[in-house]
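TA notes, week 10

Several of you asked for a full example with nothing omitted. So below is the full record: structure tokens for the whole chain, then the designed sequence directly under it. When grading your own attempts, check the secondary structure regions first.
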């Protein structure tokens, strides 16, 4: 999964678990950037009576670096508070919730949004903070046709415009990430190619392991000029000022005490327990013994993780798991010492950004510092018609790894890159195996519910959540 249950400790703390991060130039208003940060993996829609919600004791943050040092220059902070109208009932709602002010809605959340900018004129800690909104309502979870009828209206009512052209939404959404979990974690099998696996089975279509589940999404749309280092509008693709690095985090306070009444209070400084920039990094690139450390680390301190980008474990497994399929990759691995075959292409794609001159008309380079950030060149316009789900590999400069859009097939993109498709960009003596350019887990962005789109055409872009009353996780059809 992109970053679901990706490390031992955070797997025990789902409300603080980053699952996916998206950042892209908004296709409806290209003067703005939309950022979506998902939390709480694999939410079962029927998980009542205590349905999923954001953590009141978690600090959720979206961070932006705009000067290439992999340190946050602009931060959007989200804090949540739960209100219970009637503590004498076990019910989430006592009747249909027909509006955000419905008296039938018993357990609700409100939140605040604060913008922090690094500044010499800020507070003692070097930050200037502005509260953009208070007491903003997060919509209810989607329970079913009796409890949450006309859910789209409820969710849309929770989209709020804040000062200076900022738009926000925080609430439950359909899980937009698609991946064949059951196959990939069964000794690295890809169903469309599993007849070629070391332990072969008949070819089959992929099965989306996240189908039918929900997540909780923090969505924010901001003017580009709020993100650049000098407040300018990015127009030059070659200009370093056009590129930002984005990541999301969750933090908890160091102390926690439970009272005699069963209430828990937190105190002390904040410590980061989860983070996410590029998809699948902590999931697949970082080894299990260092995953918790990675989650607690700030991106600017990532340099000691460089060897895992240069020689990823999956690269070495592919020729073993698929004998004879990756002959060129196997030759590279068996005839060249590890120290002499660092994957400079993966380092550029995932850890520094791509410098100018590698792909015509493109760069998202933030400098030589190794750091996990989702890098976005804001001067590249969105592709409004026929965007390629394979992003840069599909000739679409507006797609991953130039930021990440909701429909980008990041599993296939990263599989192909690790298998060697991008290595010829930096190593002319290497020819990628034909199979490398075909790799996929066989899943696609199937609609979450009959009659609904997998994604929305406008903010907040992720589809409405699956409802508990009528949902399924099994695939009716095979996807390709």
């Amino acid at each position: 999964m992109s970053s679901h249950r990706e490390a031992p400790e955070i797997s025990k703390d789902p409300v603080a678990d980053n699952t996916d991060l998206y950042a892209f130039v908004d296709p409806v208003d290209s003067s703005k950037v939309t950022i979506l940060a998902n939390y709480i993996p694999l939410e079962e829609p029927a998980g009542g009576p205590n349905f999923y919600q954001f953590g009141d004791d978690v600090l959720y943050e979206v961070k932006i670096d705009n000067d290439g040092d992999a340190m946050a220059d602009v931060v959007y902070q989200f804090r949540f508070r739960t209100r219970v109208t009637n503590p004498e009932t076990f019910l989430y709602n006592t009747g249909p919730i027909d509006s955000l002010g419905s008296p039938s809605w018993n357990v609700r959340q409100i939140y605040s949004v604060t913008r922090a900018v690094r500044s010499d004129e800020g507070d003692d800690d070097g930050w200037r903070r502005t509260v953009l909104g208070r007491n903003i309502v997060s919509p209810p979870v989607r329970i079913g046709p009796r409890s949450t009828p006309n859910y789209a209206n409820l969710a849309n009512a929770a989209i709020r415009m804040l000062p200076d052209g900022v738009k926000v939404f925080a609430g439950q959404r359909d899980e937009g990430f698609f991946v064949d979990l059951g196959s990939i974690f069964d000794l690295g099998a890809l169903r469309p190619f599993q007849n070629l696996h070391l332990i072969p089975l008949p070819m089959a279509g992929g099965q989306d392991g996240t189908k039918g589940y929900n997540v909780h999404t923090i969505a924010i749309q901001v003017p580009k000029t709020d993100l650049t280092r000098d407040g300018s509008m990015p127009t030059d693709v070659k200009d370093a000022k056009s590129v930002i690095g984005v990541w999301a985090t969750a933090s908890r306070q160091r102390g926690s005490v439970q009272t005699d009444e069963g209430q828990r209070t937190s105190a002390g400084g904040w410590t980061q327990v989860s983070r996410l920039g590029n998809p699948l990094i902590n999931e697949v690139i970082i080894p299990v013994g260092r995953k918790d450390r990675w989650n607690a680390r700030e991106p600017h301190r990532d340099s000691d993780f460089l060897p895992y980008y240069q020689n990823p474990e999956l690269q070495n497994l592919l020729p073993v798991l698929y004998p004879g399929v990756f002959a060129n990759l196997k030759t590279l691995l068996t005839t060249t010492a590890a120290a002499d075959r660092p994957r400079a292409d993966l380092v550029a794609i995932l850890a520094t950004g791509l410098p100018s001159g590698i792909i015509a008309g493109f760069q998202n380079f933030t400098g030589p510092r190794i750091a996990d950030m989702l890098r976005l060149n804001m001067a590249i316009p969105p592709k409004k018609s026929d965007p390629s789900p394979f992003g840069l590999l599909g000739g679409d400069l507006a797609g991953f790894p130039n930021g990440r859009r909701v429909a980008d097939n990041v599993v296939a993109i990263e599989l192909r890159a690790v298998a060697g498709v991008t290595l010829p960009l930096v190593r002319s003596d290497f020819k990628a195996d034909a199979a490398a350019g075909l790799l996929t887990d066989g899943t696609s962005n199937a609609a979450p519910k009959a009659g609904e789109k997998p994604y929305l055409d406008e903010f907040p872009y992720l589809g409405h959540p699956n409802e508990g009353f009528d949902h399924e996780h099994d695939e009716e059809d095979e996807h390709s």
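Residues 10-438 form one domain. Use that as a sanity check on your answer.
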